[in-house]
Amino acid sequence: MSNLREAIEASMTDIGLGWEERLDRSEERIRAAIAANIDDATLDAHETEAARLREQLEEDDANLAHCDEEIEKLRGALIGMVRQFGHWSDEAGGYMTGGLSALQDAFEALRWSDPRPEPEDRCEAPGCTKQRSSGMPTPDGYRWLCYEHYRLVEEATR
Ligand SMILES: [Zn+2]
Protein backbone atom coordinates (compact mmCIF):
# COMPACT_ATOMS: atom_id res chain seq x y z
CA MET A 1 0.00 0.00 0.00
CA SER A 2 1.28 3.47 -0.87
CA ASN A 3 2.12 6.07 1.79
CA LEU A 4 -0.71 8.25 0.56
CA ARG A 5 -3.29 5.47 0.72
CA GLU A 6 -2.17 4.59 4.26
CA ALA A 7 -2.50 8.23 5.31
CA ILE A 8 -6.03 8.46 3.93
CA GLU A 9 -7.05 5.19 5.51
CA ALA A 10 -5.68 6.32 8.90
CA SER A 11 -7.70 9.54 8.59
CA MET A 12 -10.91 7.58 7.98
CA THR A 13 -10.46 5.74 11.28
CA ASP A 14 -10.11 8.94 13.36
CA ILE A 15 -13.30 8.51 15.33
CA GLY A 16 -14.54 10.47 18.31
CA LEU A 17 -12.76 13.68 17.33
CA GLY A 18 -14.18 16.97 16.24
CA TRP A 19 -14.49 17.84 12.54
CA GLU A 20 -11.69 20.43 12.62
CA GLU A 21 -9.31 18.14 14.46
CA ARG A 22 -9.99 15.29 12.01
CA LEU A 23 -9.34 17.64 9.11
CA ASP A 24 -6.09 18.90 10.69
CA ARG A 25 -4.84 15.37 11.37
CA SER A 26 -5.77 14.23 7.85
CA GLU A 27 -4.03 17.14 6.25
CA GLU A 28 -0.91 16.56 8.34
CA ARG A 29 -0.79 12.83 7.47
CA ILE A 30 -1.37 13.46 3.77
CA ARG A 31 1.24 16.21 3.61
CA ALA A 32 3.76 13.91 5.35
CA ALA A 33 2.95 11.06 2.92
CA ILE A 34 3.36 13.32 -0.12
CA ALA A 35 6.64 14.72 1.23
CA ALA A 36 7.94 11.19 1.83
CA ASN A 37 6.98 10.18 -1.71
CA ILE A 38 8.73 13.21 -3.18
CA ASP A 39 11.88 12.48 -1.13
CA ASP A 40 11.88 8.86 -2.32
CA ALA A 41 11.43 9.88 -5.95
CA THR A 42 14.16 12.53 -5.70
CA LEU A 43 16.51 10.08 -4.02
CA ASP A 44 15.83 7.47 -6.70
CA ALA A 45 16.52 10.02 -9.43
CA HIS A 46 19.79 11.07 -7.77
CA GLU A 47 20.89 7.47 -7.34
CA THR A 48 20.15 6.71 -10.98
CA GLU A 49 22.10 9.79 -12.06
CA ALA A 50 25.01 8.89 -9.75
CA ALA A 51 25.14 5.36 -11.18
CA ARG A 52 25.14 6.77 -14.72
CA LEU A 53 27.98 9.16 -13.85
CA ARG A 54 29.99 6.36 -12.22
CA GLU A 55 29.60 4.28 -15.38
CA GLN A 56 30.65 7.27 -17.51
CA LEU A 57 33.72 7.84 -15.31
CA GLU A 58 34.79 4.21 -15.60
CA GLU A 59 34.41 4.44 -19.36
CA ASP A 60 36.45 7.67 -19.45
CA ASP A 61 39.17 6.09 -17.30
CA ALA A 62 39.37 3.14 -19.67
CA ASN A 63 39.59 5.49 -22.65
CA LEU A 64 42.29 7.55 -20.96
CA ALA A 65 44.33 4.47 -20.13
CA HIS A 66 44.02 3.39 -23.75
CA CYS A 67 45.18 6.85 -24.94
CA ASP A 68 48.17 6.74 -22.57
CA GLU A 69 49.15 3.36 -23.99
CA GLU A 70 48.89 4.69 -27.54
CA ILE A 71 50.96 7.78 -26.69
CA GLU A 72 53.66 5.62 -25.07
CA LYS A 73 53.77 3.39 -28.14
CA LEU A 74 54.06 6.39 -30.48
CA ARG A 75 56.74 8.01 -28.28
CA GLY A 76 58.75 4.80 -28.37
CA ALA A 77 58.44 4.62 -32.16
CA LEU A 78 59.45 8.29 -32.51
CA ILE A 79 62.51 7.85 -30.27
CA GLY A 80 63.49 4.80 -32.31
CA MET A 81 63.20 6.83 -35.54
CA VAL A 82 65.29 9.71 -34.18
CA ARG A 83 67.99 7.34 -32.89
CA GLN A 84 68.16 5.61 -36.23
CA PHE A 85 67.86 8.60 -38.56
CA GLY A 86 68.71 11.67 -36.47
CA HIS A 87 72.01 13.54 -36.83
CA TRP A 88 74.71 12.94 -34.23
CA SER A 89 76.59 15.85 -32.71
CA ASP A 90 80.07 14.91 -31.46
CA GLU A 91 80.15 18.25 -29.66
CA ALA A 92 76.99 17.55 -27.66
CA GLY A 93 77.49 13.79 -27.51
CA GLY A 94 73.88 13.39 -28.60
CA TYR A 95 71.29 13.95 -31.29
CA MET A 96 70.40 17.11 -33.17
CA THR A 97 67.86 18.03 -35.81
CA GLY A 98 70.36 19.53 -38.23
CA GLY A 99 67.58 21.92 -39.22
CA LEU A 100 65.49 19.14 -40.80
CA SER A 101 61.82 19.96 -40.27
CA ALA A 102 60.71 16.33 -39.74
CA LEU A 103 63.34 15.95 -37.01
CA GLN A 104 62.43 19.36 -35.54
CA ASP A 105 58.80 18.21 -35.29
CA ALA A 106 59.88 14.94 -33.67
CA PHE A 107 62.11 16.75 -31.15
CA GLU A 108 59.27 19.12 -30.33
CA ALA A 109 56.79 16.26 -29.85
CA LEU A 110 59.29 14.51 -27.55
CA ARG A 111 60.03 17.82 -25.77
CA TRP A 112 63.72 17.33 -26.47
CA SER A 113 66.27 20.12 -26.58
CA ASP A 114 68.26 20.54 -29.79
CA PRO A 115 70.90 19.19 -29.50
CA ARG A 116 69.95 16.53 -26.97
CA PRO A 117 72.84 14.92 -25.07
CA GLU A 118 72.43 11.13 -25.07
CA PRO A 119 75.12 9.45 -22.93
CA GLU A 120 73.55 6.02 -23.49
CA ASP A 121 74.31 6.15 -27.21
CA ARG A 122 77.89 7.41 -26.87
CA CYS A 123 81.05 5.44 -27.53
CA GLU A 124 82.28 3.80 -24.33
CA ALA A 125 85.95 4.70 -24.89
CA PRO A 126 86.94 7.14 -22.11
CA GLY A 127 86.32 10.78 -23.10
CA CYS A 128 84.86 9.95 -26.53
CA THR A 129 81.57 11.67 -27.43
CA LYS A 130 81.07 10.04 -30.84
CA GLN A 131 78.03 7.85 -31.50
CA ARG A 132 78.54 4.19 -30.74
CA SER A 133 78.28 1.92 -33.75
CA SER A 134 79.41 -1.60 -32.81
CA GLY A 135 79.92 -3.70 -29.73
CA MET A 136 82.98 -5.92 -29.27
CA PRO A 137 84.87 -7.77 -26.55
CA THR A 138 87.91 -5.75 -25.36
CA PRO A 139 90.57 -6.44 -22.71
CA ASP A 140 88.33 -4.37 -20.35
CA GLY A 141 85.18 -6.33 -21.15
CA TYR A 142 82.45 -5.98 -23.77
CA ARG A 143 82.27 -2.38 -25.05
CA TRP A 144 80.10 -0.36 -27.40
CA LEU A 145 82.40 1.80 -29.50
CA CYS A 146 82.40 4.39 -32.26
CA TYR A 147 83.74 3.42 -35.65
CA GLU A 148 87.25 4.85 -34.95
CA HIS A 149 87.68 3.21 -31.54
CA TYR A 150 86.30 -0.02 -32.89
CA ARG A 151 89.02 -0.03 -35.54
CA LEU A 152 91.75 0.91 -33.00
CA VAL A 153 90.80 -1.95 -30.68
CA GLU A 154 90.53 -4.31 -33.62
CA GLU A 155 94.04 -3.37 -34.84
CA ALA A 156 95.53 -3.58 -31.33
CA THR A 157 94.16 -7.07 -30.72
CA ARG A 158 95.21 -8.47 -34.10
ZN1 LIG B 1 84.96 6.54 -29.70
Morphology call? rod-shaped
What is the number of helices?
4
Specify the biggest β-sheet. Answer: 3 strands, antiparallel
Structural class per helix/strand content?
mainly alpha
Order of helices and strands: HHEEHEEEH
Would you count the extended β strands for me? 5
Strand proportion: 5-15%
How far is it from the N-terminal to the C-terminal residue, by CA?
Answer: 101 Å
Q: In which order are the strands of the major sheet placed?
A: 1-2-3
Rg, alpha carbons: 39 Å
Low-confidence stretches: none
Strand and helix layout:
Elements: H1 3-12, H2 19-85, E1 87-89, E2 94-96, H3 101-110, E3 116-117, E4 134-138, E5 141-145, H4 147-156
Antiparallel strand pairs: 1-2, 2-3, 4-5
The structure holds zinc ion.
List keywords for this structure.
single chain, 158 residues, mainly alpha, three-stranded antiparallel β-sheet, two-stranded antiparallel sheet, 61% helix, binds zinc ion
